[in-house]
């Protein structure tokens, strides 16, 4: 065997282990990469799990679920207040009796004492329908009122005009005002000493009967004289 042949054989012998080593090294690098990748994934998974656990913990903390409440401690006893002393008894006022309808030809009686009296005059005795001017025959009725008032030492009289519920509130209010004023002007001509008059219209706000019937509406169309002797 010559020197050249021996050298080639040695080269082949050395080349085979080197190739094997390079191949093993390459495989080792690949496995290392796979292991490293798996490790990275594991770290990310663990981080995510930790994050979920943290979020869950925050949720539980913020909700304070199922935590026992603070017991209510007994407060200070309520001290008894100052007893309310009985006040002065309310004195009964002068009660106004229901109106006494005035009828033509019958004497007007105002009663005795200082109790207020209400006289009720149907509108048909004083006015035409839906009018505020006194009828000529109204004078006879009102003159009877003047005679009764003349027997008093003095009185304060409120002349009240009333209507039924037909028509608008504004119209009935105006009509009742005008009718009360017309009666006042007539009575003032009698020049009664120590007697004062006031005219007030109440419209349809103070019915004495139901407005569902003609008889009730007729009763509600009236003039009341509330006489308070002094």
TrEMBL record:
Signal sequence residues: 1-28
Recorded superkingdom: Bacteria
Domain OmpA-like: 114-230
InterPro entries reported for this sequence: Bact_OuterMem_StrucFunc, OMP_bac, OmpA-like, OmpA-like_sf
PROSITE patterns: OMPA_2, PROKAR_LIPOPROTEIN
Compositional bias ranges of the Polar residues kind: 51-70
Keywords from the named record: Cell outer membrane, Membrane, Signal
Cell compartments where the protein resides: Cell outer membrane
Pfam families: OmpA
Region (Disordered): 46-114
PANTHER family per UniProt: LIPOPROTEIN YIAD-RELATED, STATOR ELEMENT OF FLAGELLAR MOTOR COMPLEX
Protein name: OmpA-like domain-containing protein
Organism ancestry: Bacteria, Bacillati, Bacillota, Bacilli, Bacillales
């Amino acid at each position: 065997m010559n020197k050249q042949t021996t050298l080639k054989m040695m080269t082949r012998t050395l080349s085979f282990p080197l190739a094997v080593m390079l191949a093993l090294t390459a495989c080792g690098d690949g496995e290392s990469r796979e292991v490293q990748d798996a490790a990275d994934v594991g770290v990310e998974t663990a981080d995510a799990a930790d994050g979920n656990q943290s979020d869950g913990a925050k949720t539980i903390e913020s909700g304070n679920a199922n935590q026992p409440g603070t017991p209510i401690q007994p407060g200070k006893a309520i001290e008894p207040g100052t007893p309310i002393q009985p006040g002065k008894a309310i004195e009964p006022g002068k009660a106004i009796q229901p109106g006494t309808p005035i009828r033509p030809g019958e004497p007007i009686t105002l009663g005795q004492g200082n109790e207020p009296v209400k006289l009720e005059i149907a509108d048909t005795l004083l006015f035409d329908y839906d009018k505020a001017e006194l009828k000529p025959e109204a004078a006879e009725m009102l003159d009877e009122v003047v005679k009764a008032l003349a027997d008093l030492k003095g009185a304060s009289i409120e002349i009240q005009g009333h209507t039924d519920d037909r028509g608008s509130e504004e119209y009935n209010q105006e009509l009742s005002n005008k009718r009360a004023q017309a009666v006042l002007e007539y009575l003032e001509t009698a020049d009664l000493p120590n007697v004062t008059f006031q005219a007030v219209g109440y419209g349809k706000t103070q019915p004495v009967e139901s407005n569902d019937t003609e008889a009730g509406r007729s009763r509600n169309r009236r003039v009341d004289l509330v006489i308070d002797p002094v």
